[in-house]
């Protein structure tokens, strides 16, 4: 179906030809998702047993994929600086621990993060577009994005207009993403679908394709402000979407589950999903991220347990 | 690359004896027949134990024990009392679930993930389910006071050794019958462990008797006078022999035989789930499933796309040590079965179908066959007509719903079928026309004790499971 579409004359995959009608027809023409079957498949993959050397490898990979996040009204420059220090050197006692992929903050704190991370290789991501609800005008959203980009953000995490999506105004969502993408310049664009508000897997699949066609570099599950967030079946549907998108267009899009991933076990289940659904091309921080905050300390704790054979108490891991 | 390290389930939990006798009248006894055989781990060819082959004298003894238990205790025990024993057995199976799962995987070759997550939980569920019926039989729709039949002689196959035991024993006992059960000669160990569960549950002696042996023992059991009901699951060929033997004897008979199920995928199917359903349909339990979806009927308009997705998926299947928790495909149960699968696969190639398997390294020892699919299969090919009973899928195409029905029903079998479409009305339209005992919609190989299971045509007769499953064990 996908390959066929890209070769027809009214291809919705070629920007110039996308119209409201063709976009709707394309999205509604995607194969459906059977909820029972999808959840069963995700549950089966979650039962994989990752032990010993595979676990050690998975933990380091997961650490290197973390987007260490603080998105609170109470965030301050001090809080952000502390988090950046942790991002570069997650375990002060063990320099062999890899650094995380990025920190994720609100636009007004991007400058702080950029200063703190200069030269470290840890990227700075910023949420934008009236995060988390996305309820503002397009102009405000574009300004919000520019604010973050001009402050030096490497990556922008935008939210889609869920109201527009749920009322079937796909073109509006599409154009908004395209406008934000243009405002990003060189910065990578992650598009947050907020799957907890889209609810059905059919919607998740459609929103994934919509975002990818509109220019997303990454598709991301959630803001972290809505529950449920990054469930395994939702992430699996998005991984299927990026896999099929590459098969149809040759372009790779990353995936970022965010929210609700708190333990090493959770993180490993995600890596198994990536490995068996999209394939190991996605098993790098360049193409897969874990949006999380408390997860990092659990990864560190399990990592130390693997090397020493003992669990250290929570006070042996820094709170930042 | 993300390589999963070996994650083997420990086999320390099982205690396999070097040799086993027969379980008759509540105790293990030496067989009077001389013949012995070895049961092996099909993944390694390692000998697990030596078992006895019951001879005529042993069969006589077992049937007499069952008759005595029926006349003396079980046949007259109130249903609510029988239920207590069945509930107890169900709970003990749950408590010893890991032991049963490991032993099943060792003796059968199936992946521990399946024995742990499918077989053993279903076994416990089946006993729980029929325990609930034991004191409610007068409400089952078979009259005010339905009576049991007496002694049930039951012969079960090697593909789901413990689960088939549960399907046979649970309804028989719930209805007030006593049983003599013969497990398959290549997979007797979990049945023998079940004998221990019967003792642990303090089931009255003789209510359950387990005699091991091969086809000859089975023949003696089903033909023995005093056996009032015969239940057989296995090949159509043996089923026909049994039917001939029993004709005119007045013994009640149910048969659950072979299958060549069509798994029908329409162009509007949920594709990713359909791929999972195809995999689950034919590669679950190495395809050793009588209701396996061994014929894929795919609508021609999505053939290429579906096959690409299916091949990509097959490349991720993990074949190997059945006790490894990450194994998807285990070992073929016996050398004889492996030969049969190879022979039919060769026939498929010779008849012009195109054979494909993912890159897949097979272990040096043991009985193994890679997941295989044949494309370009025609209805006239042997691989489209004969039951292969292995991880081999035959792919055929259709153009219209009517053609799908025609091809799906064009088989001597009729055990199961699958329909994949997002259109609810089409599911109902198809289900009414498919001549198969079970029709799955947007899923495959799902079992529930409350749901009856059984065949049309040469797939047998009688139903197991659900309220319908009671009928086979009641004098109605």
UniProtKB/TrEMBL annotation, chain B:
The keyword Oxidoreductase applies. It comes from Bailinhaonella thermotolerans. One of its GO terms (molecular function) is oxidoreductase activity, acting on the aldehyde or oxo group of donors, NAD or NADP as acceptor. This is Aldehyde dehydrogenase family protein. The active site is at 256. It comes from the Bacteria. Pfam families: Aldedh (PF00171). Belongs to the aldehyde dehydrogenase family. The lineage of its organism: Bacteria, Bacillati, Actinomycetota, Actinomycetes, Streptosporangiales. Residues 28-475 form the Aldehyde dehydrogenase domain. The keyword Oxidoreductase applies. InterPro entries: Ald_DH/histidinol_DH, Ald_DH_C, Ald_DH_CS_GLU, Ald_DH_N, Aldehyde_DH_dom. Keywords: Oxidoreductase.
